[in-house]
Amino acid sequence: ANGEIITGSNQENASFPVGLCAERVLLASASSVFPRVPVDVIAISYKGEGHASDHPISPCGICRQSLQEFESRLGHPIKMILGGMTGVVYVIDSAKLLLPLAFTSEELR
Q1: DSSP readout, 28-57?
Q2: Which of 24, 30, 70, 75 is most exposed, with minimal Cβ within 10 Å?
Q3: Residues that are catalytic
């Protein structure tokens, strides 16, 4: 929401599943550098090994939960642009749309 561009990339680890997806790396970086500043848009793409990706990729379940909680915490939807290196692109107006039955902090009260 402040016009800054922040990037994230997958952080792989030989001790699977302790790696981090790019979406969570981005959210952690944004939150660290700009606390309490909402993220307006996140573009999610990938390049396959040895070939250009030709279809959209969507966040995994853990990332969907993280995106939804980030939205809720800051009270601001995150628009998502999902695509490959070529081909169709999906634009989704809020992470909540990818996780309609989300577990939220409300369930912990």
Answers
A1: HHHHHHSTT----EEEE---BTTB---S--
A2: 75
A3: 23
